[in-house]
Design goal:
With 108 residues, this protein is of the alpha+beta class. The protein has 4 helices and 5 strands; from the N terminus they run E-E-H-E-E-H-H-E-H. The protein has helices at 14-21, 43-51, 60-70, 90-99; strands spanning 2-5, 8-11, 33-36, 39-42, 73-75. The strands form 2 sheets. It has a 3-stranded antiparallel beta sheet. Strands 1-2 form a two-stranded antiparallel sheet. The longest helix is centred in the middle third of the chain and has 11 residues, at 60-70. It is globular and about 65 Å long.
């Protein structure tokens, strides 16, 4: 299937992508990802491997569109990603308070 990524045409096949990604260790998924085989890869890593281009040269959307057309499952973000607690988060203040014997926020 002909796909345009970073203004360059690529003739990609599902088997070709599977072969290209075979033996490639997935990087940490922090954003959009694609499931290839039994592994989940960051979209930018897949794009870098299959196009041999710098990830700054193409967008996540271009690679997601190509992978979806080839029949791979794409994901918006990492599953079960923890939400970072903010400084003013009541849960964080309570946890800090309990940790220091109920004294409330501690000035350091």
């Amino acid at each position: 299937m002909r796909c345009v990524i970073a203004r360059y045409p690529f003739d990609l096949t599902k088997d070709g992508v599977l072969a290209s990604m075979k033996g490639v260790r997935p990087e940490l998924v922090t954003g959009a990802s694609v499931t290839i085989g039994r592994r989940r890869y960051p979209v930018k890593q897949v794009g870098r491997v299959i196009t041999r281009q710098d990830p700054r040269d193409f967008t996540v959307g271009e690679v997601v569109r190509a992978m979806t057309r080839l029949g791979f499952t794409c994901h918006d973000g990492p599953e079960g990603a923890p939400v970072a607690a903010g400084v003013g988060d009541p849960a964080l203040v309570h946890a800090t308070s309990a940790l220091f014997g109920g004294a409330g926020p501690v000035a350091v």
